[in-house]
UniProtKB/TrEMBL annotation:
N6-(pyridoxal phosphate)lysine PTM positions: K291
Stated name of the protein: Adenosylmethionine-8-amino-7-oxononanoate aminotransferase
KW Cell cycle (keyword) present: no
Complex and partners: Homodimer.
Role, per record: Catalyzes the transfer of the alpha-amino group from S-adenosyl-L-methionine (SAM) to 7-keto-8-aminopelargonic acid (KAPA) to form 7,8-diaminopelargonic acid (DAPA). It is the only aminotransferase known to utilize SAM as an amino donor.
Organism: Tuwongella immobilis
Chain positions recorded as pyridoxal 5'-phosphate binding sites: G121, A122, D262, H327, T328
Gene Ontology CC entries for this record: cytoplasm
Broad class of enzyme this protein falls into: transferase
Amino acid sequence: MTASAFPSRQELEDWDRQHVWHPFTPMQEYAQERPLIIERAEGAMLYDLDGNAYIDGVSSMWCNVHGHCVPELDQAIHDQLGKVAHSTLLGIGNVPSIRLARKLAEIAPEGLTRVFFSDSGATAVEVALKMAFQFWQQTTPAKPQKTRFAALQGAYHGDTLGDVSVGDIGRFHNRFKPLLFETFRVPSPNCYRCPMGLQPTSCLLECVQELERLIEREAEQLAAVVIEPGVQGAAGMIPLPANYLRRLRDATHRHDVLLIADEVAVGFGRTGTMFACQHESVVPDFLCVAKGLSGGYLPMAATLTHDRIFQAFLGDALSGTTFFHGHTFTGNPLGAAVSLASIDRLLEGGVLAGLAERVQLLQRWAERLRDLPIVGNVRQLGLLMGVELVQNRETKTPFPAERRLGHHICRKLREQGVLIRPLRDVLVVMPPLGIDVSLLDRLCEFVYHAISTTPME
Ligand code: PMP
């Protein structure tokens, strides 16, 4: 169907305004603007109803690993469609989800061989929280008093109530406080704005020491610590300092506390390794993945864990030890088929191996961006970058929130054919891993130009 055929572009715009409630979107403002409606895509480019092209600078919400309309991925879905589009995992199996579970067990950190499928990042983490909670009641010897969780300031783990309870982004989460369980909170390892007032050059990772102390003090009641390895994404792309994750893992081991690694945003190559945990050879008790699992094609997620957890859920059908959690589309065969094709492309297709060249290019742009007068900090890890804009570099004073600078720069970029989303005044660049080097260069040049031409006042 072309844009001029029924429904017309005008009708689509009207129906969008009348019916579609967009997530994380102030809808009053949305209704006043002309909506951007994507009609098709190819590679790292998206095209709207008028045929205008946009560079997909944030991988369509941090998930599109290889780009769009990738022949092998399209083919994998097409082939599976000819067999079965959906069949349940409740008590029966399907071929692609079995193959995918096997593949995930092979590529994940050692020992994470048990795979529980779901359909979003939020559910992948929610499953881990519920499993950790139930595990302590059923393991031998049982420790039913271990019911609490610890998480970082600025954490984001999804939008279900369990995830929001461990999350800590005031703007998103405070509203729901009366519905949430209490979580132990430790400082974010934000080296640019150290919550402990320390300098990265001289600090002794006091933030991890505080986490270690908490784990030791509260081990009796602590079920698990949940963390985003690599970077705290929604907090503003805050990288964990070297050794942070390793020390956290060691502390949780010492005190028999579980570790939940939320790799929803960083899994599948984003930080340069298949999983961010692998930078420090950390094996968590739960590895939560989604977004990039299916190459960003279909809603697909998984929570991986090891046998000690799994064994605690065995017992006869009436024992009450079963994990009573599941979703209609858990282990969807189309999602599993495209996930297999995506992982193949990352490994055998050489996408992971070819990442270094793109990462080096991004590093060079990060260096250049650091010189701009309104850039306070550039945080780059693998093929992701957060550029924090500040009014005063010396004092790190942010721009007034009312100025909505991040939002306005992204709007300007959109008019120029670049789609990125800000996290307040942190501009996020996170293109598909397989983006052409020349297109990545152009993307960064646009971002650089948009920032360098933004007036201070
Ligand atoms: N965890 C992290 C670290 C995330 O970045 C996100 C989404 N941005 C989620 C969980 C939730 O994933 P989803 O949007 O698929 O529910």
